[in-house]
Amino acid sequence: MKKEKIKKYTLKSGESRYMFQIYLGINPLTGKEARTTRRGFKTKKEAEIGLARLLLEYDENKGLKAKKKKMTFKEATESWLAVYKQTRIKQNTYENSVFKFEQHILPKFGHLLLANITPDYCQKVVLNWAEYYQEFSNLISLTSRVFDYARLTLKVVDDNPIKDIIRPVTKDKTPYESPHYDREQLAHFLSCADQIDAQTAILFRLLAYTGCRKGEILGLQWRDYDEISNSIRIERTAAYTKAGKVSLHAPKTQTGVRTISLDVETGKRLREWKTTQRKELLMRGYSARSTTQHIVTNKKNGIMHLSSPNYLLIKIEKKYDIDRISIHGFRHTHTTLLIEAGVPFKEIQDRLGWGNPDMLLKIYSHVNRKDKLNTGNKFAEYIN
């Protein structure tokens, strides 16, 4: 590192002062030369001492690192999220991560300087998360990714303190509960949906009678419906793009690509809707005879926005004073009723497109728990 000579200069008052300028090398973040100037020393000796201190501080570029270390966790998070958003992730995955940072992570870490965060502090935070947040391991993972980004990419810290914590033992989870309808509630809801309009009726019938995800239903095209076998083929799903728009994507996993058999009544209603849809679209100036025509659409005959089914659901629930469930609750409803109907476990897993059976096992355990309460009566009835 080259250092400049100490120079003498004169103030307007006529007094003498000393100064120096030091070259620090190339700033790794900007690629530009980094220099600093110090002036105002009354004597040359003071200037020499000041220069020696700077040389010690900036030795081997440590000075730049010291400056960069004055970065908060929130600043590092914002930088990481900007990069993360550009990776091949779905918009809802990104938004879910942002939500977790805002609600759980940044309130604990955001205001702190990265260099001051210790493993001990991280341990206390993790123990607190474990007390109220069932999926606290995901919070640890997101936090760790920010620390690794700060360490490896930004190079503002030398280690990742949250990797040194001891993960608390997961507490026994309560039996799986999720808002869903029983047979009577579902029949009532669908009769109410029939009163809204034909497309709303077919949308919720498909959700309830296939167990498909919302995006899978919105991605359905008429070419996916086989009238001969009375089945639908799931090959794509509607999802948000990084720009916040809706487009079609392949299912996340290979098990998501599947064929789902329909009941006779749902097949009949689908064929009726196909004829009705063509008439309605023709009246609005659209042709519905394309092979890529969607089964449910927005007003401009495009892909229905992912939020639209949610608004329709709330509209029906409020208008007819129906118990509240989410759109995803229809998937749970379908699964629960299949289990109660005695459909084999493997058939349900294939129908729902679950590569990992964990969620199905939770629902299965919940349904069986009800049956177990009646085991004694069943035995007595059989003996008698």
Describe this structure as you would to a colleague.
The protein has 15 helices and 8 strands. By secondary structure, the protein is mainly α. It folds into 3 domains: 61 residues, no CATH class; 92 residues, DNA polymerase, domain 1; 151 residues, hpI Integrase, Chain A (Orthogonal Bundle). The strands form 3 sheets. The chain has a 3-stranded antiparallel β-sheet. A 3-stranded antiparallel β-sheet has the order 4-5-8, with no helix packed on it. Strands 6-7 form a two-stranded antiparallel ribbon. A hairpin with a 6-residue loop joins strand 2 and strand 3. The N and C termini lie far apart (97 Å). The relative contact order is 0.08.
Short description:
The chain is mainly α and 384 residues long.
* Total beta strands: 8
- The chain-level structural class is mainly alpha
Cα end-to-end separation: 97 Å
Biggest sheet overview: 3 strands, antiparallel
Question: Strands of the largest sheet, in order across it?
Answer: 1-2-3
CATH architecture of the largest domain: Orthogonal Bundle
